[in-house]
Prior knowledge:
The complex is a heterodimer. Chain A is α/β, with parallel strands linked by helices.
Amino acid sequence: xxxxxxxxxxxxxxxxxxxxxxxxxxxxxxxxxxxxxxxxxxxxxxxxxxxxxxxxxxxxxxxxxxxxxxxxxxxxxxxxxxxxxxxxxxxxxxxxxxxxxxxxxxxxxxxxxxxxxxxxxxxxxxxxxxxxxxxxxxxxxxxxxxxxxxxxxxxxxxxxxxxxxxxxxxxxxxxxxxxxxxxxxxxxxxxxxxxxxxxxxxxxxxxxxxxxxxxxxxxxxxxxxxxxxxxxxxxxxxxxxxxxxxxxxxxxxxxxxxxxxxxxxxxxxxxxxxxxxxxxxxxxxxxxxxxxxxxxxxxxxxxxxxxxxxxxxxxxxxxxxxxxxxxxxxxxxxxxxxxxxxxxxxxxxxxxxxxxxxxxxxxxxxxxxxxxxxxxxxxxxxxxxxxxxxxxxxxxxxxxxxxxxxxxxxxxxxxxxxxxxxxxxxxxxxxxxxxxxxxxxxxxxxxxxxxxxxxxxxxxxxx
Amino acid sequence: xxxxxxxxxxxxxxxxxxxxxxxxxxxxxxxxxxxxxxxxxxxxxxxxxxxxxxxxxxxxxxxxxxxxxxxxxxxxxxxxxxxxxxxxxxxxxxxxxxxxxxxxxxxxxxxxxxxxxxxxxxxxxxxxxxxxxxxxxxxxxxxxxxxxxxxxxxxxxxxxxxxxxxxxxxxxxxxxxxxxxxxxxxxxxxxxxxxxxxxxxxxxxxxxxxxxxxxxxxxxxxxxxxxxxxxxxxxxxxxxxxxxxxxxxxxxxxxxxxxxxxxxxxxxxxxxxxxxxxxxxxx
Lengths: 463, 283
């Protein structure tokens, strides 16, 4: 019988301490914690949780193995479906997915599936060597982008017997896991480890390759690839289009986070890329990226870090956990406020931001209540840094070079949901480049479906 | 790893490298740049491709040692390698259909200007070149430009070589004399490009400049290289780096270039390796 109505807590670094370091905030379950939490699972005959998982992890079965203390076996069970468990255990919005479907959640707290996934992935991390797979001969597949979608496609196809090459634009693989999500939420060592495991499956990763510049998709076909998967993500930052946005001290969240995460500016001057962060930082937006930027700013020494968001608490798109962590660390929320212009001094540096108060009207297309400005309510927020975190669009480099891939008016690739098939023969796509900025696990789900479809496509062609 | 096949010192602190990069050379065109990283802790440094040889599979870059990162690059020797080299990046420029072009280089700006001038000449344009520098010993690529130019003028701030004064002095005379110039390309320090663009505007001569904005990734991802062109925000890395000089907001660019200057000062004061906080598309 379930032994507790509330889930086992996961230890965390004290907020007062953690805002002075970049170490991981959540510390993970101990064996005892994991055993205790696994005991709570009801072992449903028809596990609803699995339906909530975009990659269909056999959640019930892996938790049963945890309860028996078979942690390595549990990790293996997850890995049958999920190539990046240590990542997903950390950054998946489980509360909207598997845990939202957990039957236990109706009357009590749902099983902490994400924390258990994280525990077994970390436990098994150094226990098991992924067997080096001899590169298969079923065909050659090129994968553009080494983020969650690309890594998933590559791993699945390598396991099916294909020779897979990933082309990555940056000098490090991982895509948003590497440049976007901060160390304190997803240690880069873990990302590197997951990537290394995928390389041991026989996948080759070519870094510093911007497809669309060094070579195009047609050239990849000419080089003998049977299919191409495009998983280039949503890397183009959006700006507000207001006065003063090009002042010194205004960043896109992409730039700010890339300097810190990819280039390790938080270790300046040991690492040579600097990042400027002032005393008072405003972050515009309220998604996970905004929380990451606001919390990063505190760790870099900002005295105040303020989220400015035009809607209300209910409408904030960030995960509850991220909002809570930000609040604990002292991030201030100025909700129902919209920036009107950014103010600078004679040298071109930011000195403030003019905001206007907002109120919520009727629901808009997104189902959220539309924010409306309150006339005459402009006020000035004194800040010296402004970080714009209002979303990203797909990077157009590859798409400009490949006009025969159909795109939407938002610049995303038009691809079939179940297969990732695009308008161009042999080209599949998935992840943020198709959906616009979404979650790691959704990108992985799209990667899984595309891997299946690519396999079928190549086999049909061969026959 | 990208091996350095040849290193030459062109002037005090200015070094030319020929690097093995066959795939990049194969796709390179005038106006493209690359980004290099020397080692695991290094900055990503953008550098214009100063020449390329598709047959040989090489690209040439020219670097001036002015801060930590550029000095680190200049300290590399023949046989050493860059850890990372990515490119070709940026939008290449069209060099066809011009009859008479004035190429204006300020200092290291001669390096990014060279492949454009070469391509223009190959496509039948008559080239007039003005090479300017602070002092004579900082002039580079004089021979290369002389080989492809019908006329070559030299100006130095201190008068140690050629005409004493700025490139704009020589350019003004040429514009006064000659009314059939169909393009001026000016590459050099931001302030020089600003003055050249201001000078050519009343003459109605099309003017192209190439910006050396701050950037991280070079693929449109960070937006650090924002520039206002004709009232619109553009990214120098993907929409440029070459732009119509008459539309660029140079004052904004001059301010943006100073963004990290105070870090450089701080780094100097503290005596540690501070890094160079300005990208090196041209200088």
